[in-house]
Amino acid sequence: MKAVITATAKYLPENVLSNHDLEQILDTNDDWIRTRTGIRERRILKDPDKATSFLCSEVARQLLDIRGVSADDVDLIIVATMTPDMLFPSTACLVQNAIGASNAWAFDLSGACSGFIYALHTGSQFISAGTHKRVMIIGGEKMSAVMDYTDRTTCVLFGDGAAGVLLEPGTDENHGILDARLYSDGSGGDNLCMPAGGSSRPTTHDTVDQKLHFLQQDGRQVFKSAVVAMADVATEIMERNGLAAEQVDYLIPHQANHRIIQATAERMGISLDHVAVNIDRYGNTSAATIPICLAELDETNKLQTGSNLILVSFGAGYTWGGIYLKWQ
Ligand code: COA
User: Fold this and answer.
1) Cβ contact 197:207 at 8 Å
2) Two domains, one topology: 3-169 and 176-326
3) Strand, helix or coil for residue 305
4) 98-112 burial, b if ≥16 CB within 10 A, otherwise e?
5) Which secondary structure element, helix H or strand E, spans residue 164, and what is its range?
């Protein structure tokens, strides 16, 4: 039994932080950010009382509305995030409580920017096994909570947002999530991390003074690894499934840098009009980028029965992977 996506939804906070806004607080400029990354603006969840679970709960409610099912009908909620409300309890449990999904079990998945792809593959296994009928997969991040807004090399890149899908059993073996290749390489861990706040460096005055509770990245190293890994896994998915470039209706890549997206499309031999791109409007929302793209394609009716989609991502860990999905 294949898992199919029966609803998509997204939630972006209203507040826009543009490159021009960043020019006011940092030694940066719109031209540098646009040409190096493709980003024009990103969304920020300003309300200090709201966190990742708020963004994800908004998505979960929409998924129920769109599909016309009740919260009681949900069997499992997986939230992919690297900015959970707290280390524990899980953000997924907070979402479960917020929407009243009393029959669902819920857990977080830590896959950084690849979190949604990891979670989609994980969730689809419960459907394929026949043990679960409705699984919510949500990627959500309040990246602004782990940004150092004095560090121009990182804070210009990331934004807040959430999106997700409802997975259910399909009726046609040839539609739905058809293939997945997922990878990890822990040797890249130091190049993209938040050093403190976990059990290896618990929070102290010192860790706060040293700014170790913010995201840190060696951008050049990550760029080099991401560009190879995303293109490799995208072409591997094409080869494994006998897909020629002209058969790929949409590449849905993680939105970290427009140059990485372009390089991936070039290696696949597909033109940019077959690539989902919204990095200009939202920046890198980590686990949320791919489902936001998917929701936008769905709400603008770009997805038809039989559309071939390839989802690819790369993120901290390192983690990366690709999924082949035929729209139902
Ligand atoms: N505004 C202006 N100048 C900036 C800047 C900013 N916001 N950020 C960095 N610079 C400067 C640097 O200080 C450097 O100056 P120098 O040459 O005088 O030292 C110069 O711009 C070039 O920096 P560099 O880091 O080489 O730029 P880059 O072309 O590699 O682009 C990234 C930087 C972060 C955009 C790019 O490396 C990247 O996208 N990396 C991968 C990100 C990613 O995929 N993350 C992960 C997955 S989630």
Assistant:
1) yes
2) yes
3) coil
4) bbebeebebebbebb
5) strand 161-169
**176-326: what fold?**
Peroxisomal Thiolase; Chain A, domain 1 (3.40.47)
Determine the distance separating the centroid of ligand 1 and the alpha carbon of 21, expressed in angstroms.
Answer: 19
Q: Which of 113, 155, 193, 293 is catalytic?
A: 113
Q: With bands split at pLDDT 50, 70 and 90, how would you rate the model's confidence at 162?
A: very high
- Distance from the Cα of residue 139 to its chain's centroid: 5
| Residue 84 DSSP label | -
Cβ within 8 Å of residue 174, ≥6 positions away: 2, 326
SS3 6: strand
Q: Which of 254, 257, 258, 293 is catalytic?
A: 254
Domain ranges of the chain: 3-169, 176-326
- Specify whether 293 is catalytic: no
* Pick from 140, 187, 178, 186: nearest CA to 160: 140
CATH superfamily of 3-169: Thiolase/Chalcone synthase (3.40.47.10)
Q: Is 76 helix (H, G, I), strand (E, B) or coil?
A: strand
Mean of the per-residue pLDDT values for the chain? 98
The one-letter code for the residue type at 218 is: D
Please provide the distance, in angstroms rounded to a whole number, between the alpha carbons at the two ends of the chain. Answer: 13
pLDDT band, very low/low/confident/very high, at 320 (cuts 50, 70, 90): very high
User: Which of 283, 254, 287 has its CA nearest to residue 92?
Assistant: 287
The token pair that represents 179 in the structure block: 């293939």
**Nearest-angstrom CA–CA distance, 40 and 37:** 9
Active site residue 56: no
Q: Is 284 a catalytic site residue?
A: yes
User: Within 10 Å of residue 266's Cβ, how many Cβ atoms?
Assistant: 12
